[in-house]
Each structure stands twice: as structure tokens, then as C-alpha cells.
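Record type: monomer structure entry
Structure origin: computed from sequence
Chain ID: A
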Amino acid sequence: MVSSTEERGEFALGWKVLFASVLGVACGASPLPFNVIGFTVEPLIAEFGWTRTQILMPVTIFGIIASLLAPFSALWRINMAYGKWRSIRYLPSGSPLRWLR
């Protein structure tokens, strides 16, 4: 006999989690500047006389800083969950230190 959970597909079992994840990513603080800036560039140019570079440069700086700080944020979270020495080996991604036990 097949149980009821085995009869249902993966999507049928996890659609609520998938929907919440999509909604969170779509409305989160990180993607909003990238998704909305295209609609606001022309009105900002017309209103303030700024150049396209002046409007888009902060979004570029935000992306660069966020990508540089992401490994340290992950290290901090691993450190909080598992302790100092386990988290240190995950910092240099792809490093031989990662495989130390």
C-alpha cells in the first residue's frame, strides 16, 4: 500500500513554503531597489535634473558592498549556530581548510 504522502507530489506537499519563499524574496529589502529603480529613473531625472549615473551609482555600491559582506554574514551565522572553530573553516570558500575535521 502507498501512503497518502507518497501519492502526492513534491509540489503538492511544499507549495505553501515555496509561495512564502517567493513572496519573501520578491518583497524583501534586497531585491526591491533592483526591481523598482527602472521605473523611477526617468521621473527622478525630470524632477531633480540628476544624471542616470548619479541615480544608479548607489544601487551599484549597495550590490558591491553586499556581495563583499555576504561571506562574513554567513560566517557569523554559522558561528552562532555551531561555534568558532567549525565556522572558521567555511570562510575561505573552496579552501582546503573547509575539509578539516
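Annotation 1: Residues 3 and 55 are 57 Å apart (CA to CA).
Annotation 2: The chain has five helices and no strands.
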